[in-house]
Amino acid sequence: MIYITQLIYVKKGKEAIFHEFEEIAIPTILKYNGRLTLRIRPNENSIIENNIEVPYEIHLVEFDSQEDFDNFKMDEERKKFLHLKEQSIESVILIQGVKLN
Fold first, then answer.
1. pTM over 0.85
2. Which residue ranges form the domains of the chain, and what is each CATH number?
3. CA nearest neighbour of 3 among 78, 94, 92, 71
4. Separate counts of helices (H) and strands (E) for the chain
5. Which phi and psi (to 5°) does residue 2 adopt?
6. What are the strands, taking DSSP E only, across 16-84?
7. Contact 56, 15 (CB under 8 A)
8. Distance of alpha carbon 93 from its chain centroid, rounded?
9. Distance between CA 15 and CA 21 in Å, rounded?
10. Residue 75's pLDDT band (boundaries 50, 70, 90)?
11. How much is the CA Rg of the chain, to the nearest whole Å?
12. 64: nearest Cα among 72, 74, 56
């Protein structure tokens, strides 16, 4: 199992385009043995301390394997809508890890 955390920074005024991309991308995760386990849109009341810009959204996703994650990224249907991602997202910080017991 692999775990992905994404800090997503959306361009000002492009939120609707980002949401349009997410309507395609999020259901695609399921096709590749993945699960969106948490989707957060932080606000100033939820931040205790920060030393970086607060992202528009934070996603926690898990995939059964690295191969599943790689296949998700290469999904042909998802690729057709990458222009929406490019139009709306300023940057993404992607953190990949494993579960510790």
1. yes
2. 2-46+53-97 (3.30.70.100)
3. 94
4. 4, 4
5. -120, 150
6. 34-40, 57-63
7. yes
8. 9
9. 10
10. very high
11. 14
12. 72
